[in-house]
Amino acid sequence: MFSKDIGIDLGTANVLIYVKDNGLIINEPAVIAIDKRTDEPVAFGEEAYQMMGRAPEHIQIVHPMKSGNIAEFEMTRVLIRHFLEKALGKSLRIKPHITVCCKADTTRVEKNVIRQVLMGAGAKQVVMEEESKVAAIGAGIDISKPSGNMIVDLGAGTTDASVLSMGEIVSFKKTNIGGLHFDQCIIQHIRKKHNVYIGEKTAEQVKKGIGLVLMSGEKPNAMNVHGSDLATGIPKTIEVTAEEIHQALQLPIGKIVETTRDALEGTPPELAADIAQRGIILIGGGAWLPGIDTLLTEHLNVPVFIAENPLTCIAEGTGSLMDSIGKTWTRII
After folding, report:
1. Of 128, 27, 29, 109, which Cα lies nearest the Cα of 70?
2. CATH topology of domain 142-177+251-306
3. For residue range 294-324, what is the model confidence (pLDDT) as tens digits?
4. 142-177+251-306 and 179-248 in the same fold
5. What is the per-residue pLDDT for 67?
């Protein structure tokens, strides 16, 4: 029997699985719910995510990925095993060949951990590719030519800025600032200003609703936010404005601008000229923050565009890679 070819985007916030000839099959939160009384998993992915802030005390919500790396070995293995069974069938009788993406600065030890997790989850063989290259392919960029292309991945755990030419990474910078850090800034701001505690899911809703990177001349938007009064512990609803959330996000946004600038400044002049003409492509969930492309354009004097498929281009890039190069299972990094 032939093995299935699988591409995995193992992200801090989401796991995406691309099955060759079938497309994107899994796109779910990288979350697992554990019953602390038995140490057994009770829910995975989207189902576990819906339990956040609502589960009883004996249910622990675990995020096994931190800042783009595996933080909980066994929990990640169990989670990936579940998703593979969901994508390919419960028995996993035919072990898949897996292409997985890793950061440009991933160490050999970290790569070995990723490989061990995937092999333990049911993989027959594992190939690793650098995430920036795969993302560029998924975004429709031809990185094989001697010209500069720049990808900025605004992920949940990190922000990565990469310049590519002739299929290689020429300049790379990373900061451990991402969408989850934005959520924490919002939680801390509301706690400090309004004396109200909100959970991570509520903070994410605020970020998506009124998390403006740039303030327009129009009247700022606002939304009602539900939390717990820190003084009394009882539920409380407050109004939060886009302007105050904009101020709360200034520090992490500034770090993202700085990281992107550093990668651009470390680029050879000829390739930098290409980027100035072609622009920078944004991917990842943070690419949807209103105004982030305009803000980066203003600070870098380089046009910045959001990819057509910012959330899925890494997973789809693994599919394009498998289609173009066929079987590459002897190339184990």
Report:
1. 109
2. Nucleotidyltransferase; domain 5 (3.30.420)
3. 999 999 999 999 999 999 999 999 988 887 6
4. no
5. 82
